[in-house]
Structures are given as structure tokens and as C-alpha cells.
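Researcher: For the annotation table, I need C-alpha cells for Putative UDP-glucosyltransferase YjiC. Please keep the output clean. Sequence:
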Amino acid sequence: MKYILANVPGFGHVNPTLPVVEELVARGEEVVYYVPDTFKEAVESVGATFHPYELDLSNMVPPTGMGLGGPMSGIQIQNALPFRMIKESQRILPQVLEQLRQERPDAILYDAMCLWARIAAQVLHIPAIQLRPSYAINEHVKLFPMGQGNGAGSPIPPPFIQQIREDIAELCKQYQLPPFDLQSTLGHAESLNIVFMPRAFQPAGETFDERFVFVGPSLRPRHEKSDFPLQELAGEPVLYISLGTVFNNQLEFFKGCIDVFGNTDQKVVLSYGKRIQPAELGPLPANFIAAAYTPQLEVLAHTDVFVTHGGMNSTMESLYNGVPMVVLPQMIEQQMTARRVSELGLGVMLESSPDATQKLREAVEHVRQDASFRARAREMQRTIQQTGGYREAADAIMDYTQKTLQRA
């Protein structure tokens, strides 16, 4: 069978799909992967055919006067996702629609943020399977209460909502689609939806029907070349600090971590990203290892406490290794994750504050000293080990596609 996989250019979205693609290819299936050029090497390394599309992110900024113009926080950026998804659809569909028609795939697999792929599947009458690297959404679980306060102190302005609704109506008219509402841009479900987390972590997990397959983290050894000194982590308590790949330009925070955790009785691994120069961090204490990039799965295998932004990939990788967390969320979805981590006793949530690093030190010590956090993280680790991961995802995809073709 032949599959199209359509994704957005984000590591948190692409990474969970790569083991699934590798598994499908190993079973003799053909996968053509649509994503911008940044991910060409990663896509080809798992045996898929790479097809890029062009995306000018500068055109995805919400209009000024809508309450979301200018420099935006993580919360505001996430509020703007429906706007961005629609603009992406307007830009990408003319590039790829005829090519997709000629590909004649048996099914389209698409990330939940790829509205353009969902539209393409409808226009071309191709079976569609949704991939969710984060939470499934239904009437019990909503990430974005449109037009209201979202719990993060950043309501979406009504004029902005109206603009999005007009853009949706224009898109539906252009491609002769049944109308859909604003919430459906993020909350739409297909007949099969692959969710890359265990049902036990999903809020209201029991309310999702058989259309949702919770396969758990989709992880395979990445075989990346790295000169990171993993041997230095053996035999010592390890604190790992990383804010992911998007909102990691946090020099003052990292310097504060060096101040409060320097020369303590633990090894500290600090992943500071590509936008900070090593010299800006200043001299490092003897117990610190700082790197622009770290092999996260391998580091987490040695970690006692993980300080994280709460991105879903990082959260799942932490729980896959049974590591409790201190979560510093920067977006709505990450706040939801931080609350979930706290509710399940897997760690603690910290809000940003002027004395954030001092509170961070106290939180890390609390999570380290209270054995219940590690015990519950290991319990979730056992739950994850019982999920099928990328293999279960491939099984579900192939089974659904075969049954759909037989009915056609």
C-alpha cells in the first residue's frame, strides 16, 4: 500500500512519526512524506520518499489590531494556531493538490495541525488517518475555549475569531467543502486517530471511543552521532534541564540555574539550544555539563529529575524512562501537561515568577526527596511499556486501510 504522510515543520510533530514510517517501510509499504526542507535528512533516513512544500512563516502572523499582533508570548502564539493553519492551507494546497492526485495513495496520514492535508483528503476522496502527537480533543477536553478566557489569562479577541471564520468560509467555498466551525480546526476527528500517549495520561481518557488508538510514545533509538560524555553521568544523581527547541532562548533563566545548582552534590546537564552562545553562559561550575544539543533519550536514562517546558515529546520521553519532572510551561498545551503531571503525582508545576530559579531549586529538591514522585513515574513507565508504540500504530494504520479498500 502507498501512504502520504503530511506534517508541519516542528520536531515535536515529526519525531513521533519517524518510527512509524520506518516500521511501515520495513513491512514493505511505500510512504511519501510531505514536510519542508529542514526535515529532508530525517525523513529519508527512515526510508520514506521526501516531498517538500514551501512555507513562508512571515505571512502567518495575525493581523495587527486583532489583539495578537506584534511580539507574541507562547500562549498567544498557540491561540493563533487556527489562523496559521488556515493561512498554511491557502498557501500549500495549490502547491500539492495536483501532485497528490497523481500520487494515487491508498491513504493520507496527517498531523492534527495539517488542515491542508485534511482538506486535500476530502477534495480527492482519499481515506484519511489523523496523527496526534499531543492530546486528543472531544467535548470533555478542549485546549482552546474560543472567544473566552483560556485559563491562561489570554482570551482570543472576538475580531480575530471573526477573521478566522471568514477565512474558513472562503476556504470551504474555494474547494467546495462542507462548512466547518472554528473549534473543528483543531478538534476534528477521523475514523482512525493515532494518539502518541497512553490513555492513562490523556485527560478524560475513558471518554474517547474506538476511533482513538492510544499507542503511547513512538520511540526508537535515533542512532545519532554525538560526542556528549554520557559516561560522566554514571554513578551520580543527575538533574537534566531543557526547555525544548522552540522557546529556549532563555539566557537569564539558564544563568540562574547555573547559580542555584552550581557546586551542588549532583551532576547537572543543561541543554541551552542553538540561539545562545556558550560564552554567554559564563564559567561553568565543575558539576555542570552544558551543550547546545543533548541526546535526550540517553540522558534521561541516567536522570533523577527532569526540568522541562512540558512539550509532549519531552514529557513522554521522561515517563518512558520513569523520570519525575518539574514543569515550567510556556504555552496553553504545556500548561495542560504541567497540570496533568501534577494531578498524576508525576512531578510539580511551576509558574514563572521573579524568583523563579530559587523556587525551581526548592521544587527540584522536593521532587528528589519525595520518593512518591519517582514511584508514580515508574508506574506510568510500566503503563507505557504495555502500549504498542510505533508497532501498534503501524498495525492500526494498515488494518484500517485494508478494511477501507475492501469496502470501496
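Researcher: And a one-line annotation?
Model: The chain has two domains: 2-216+388-407, 230-385.
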